[in-house]
Amino acid sequence: MVEFALILPVFLLLVFGVLDFGRAVYADSTISNAAREGARFGMIAPSPTSAVQAKVQQYASTLAIPAANVSVSCVTADGTNDCANAEPGDQITVAVTYAYVPVVVNIGTFVEPSLTLASHATMVVQ
Question: Of the four listed, 31, 93, 94, 110, which is most buried by Cβ atoms within 10 Å?
């Protein structure tokens, strides 16, 4: 009984640490794919920034990423940053950030530490 009482907290910390790491990998993969999907959406059919942001938010709906964390920029031949009027050969870049809050570190603390995950994708408009 004593050995179990000594080992149980360490075992639970390891189990929840592995689960937290899995959640972090999932979140990182999701924002990476969402950025790529948003850039692809803007590449195929040039759209306003808000439409690309909505596509990214739709793709990463499980993370509830706010529109403020999705940045869309275009590099056009005429020097403007108008994604809605992008022409073939212009570049569109979508950047996504997400504040990941682990569960294990939060246990017993009043401060919520977070890890900022970021990803971006750049594609050429076709």
Answer: 94
